[in-house]
Amino acid sequence: MALSTFNILLKRDLTLAYRHRSELANPLLFFVIVVSLFPLGISPESKDLQLIAPGVIWVAALLAAMLSLDSLFRSDFEDGSLEQIALSAHSLPLLVLAKVLAHWLITGLPLLLLAPFLGVLLFLPDSAMLTLIATLALGTPILSLVGAIGVALTVGLRRGGVLLSLLVLPLYIPVLIFAAGAVNEAARGFPVAGQLYFLGALLTLSLTLSPFATAAALRISLS
User: Fold this and answer.
1) Which of 76, 100, 134, 201 is the most buried (most CB within 10 A)?
2) Any stretches that span the bilayer, and where are they (predicted)?
3) Are 18 and 51 in contact (CB under 8 A)?
4) CA distance 124 to 117
5) Nearest-CA neighbor of 148 among 197, 199, 201, 215?
């Protein structure tokens, strides 16, 4: 029963996102534009771009993920369905996890698929390309899970975007440091197992705690 409800909510959010495809394109276009501006603004030299490529791609991915966070619960809050979800007999953390998974499939997965092409644009070495994909596969779900807590706390505010950034950005810094550091080390030929293990631990921690923290924050915002 719980799994069936999870699947229904996941399919609902994916269907609603598909009906508003223009909104889905905004974070992806932002991601592409930000990364593409660096060769124009800094230098077209391959050596210069190789040095900044990991940080540029990860900062752009982080900001693109943040750009789409506000839509995670906003439409449900405005039409009243969020209250119905919170008051339902089903586990609220499980329902929150379904919405976060839908957000990642809509935003995080496309970023992961686009990143290698932008890595080629910035002359990222082939040796670092798999590490870039691995860090995004581990890191982007963390961005969605942690961001959901901030969105849940600010969903009732009219202009909660700035407050959301202040709440969420400091929590994103460890992910940015270890993910960009892993890609840098891979480009130099050094092992990156330590950074990947750390990202895996952060993902496990986020999966364990974030749905419960988000559910509690939603109850506070809706009370």
Assistant:
1) 100
2) 24-43, 55-73, 94-124, 130-155, 162-183, 195-218
3) no
4) 10
5) 215
Q: Which residue has the tokens 């230098």?
A: 43
- Residue among 27, 13, 160 at smallest CA distance from 81: 13
Type of residue at 68: S
pLDDT in tens, the chain (223 residues): 667 778 888 888 888 877 777 777 888 899 999 998 888 888 778 788 888 888 999 999 999 988 888 778 877 787 777 888 888 777 888 889 999 999 999 888 999 999 999 998 888 888 899 999 999 999 999 999 999 998 888 887 776 667 788 888 889 999 999 999 999 999 888 999 999 999 999 999 999 999 999 999 888 888 7
On whether the pTM is more than 0.85, the answer is yes
The amino acid that residue 125 corresponds to is P
| Alpha-carbon span 27 to 168, nearest angstrom | 17
Tokens 């691995």 locate to: 134
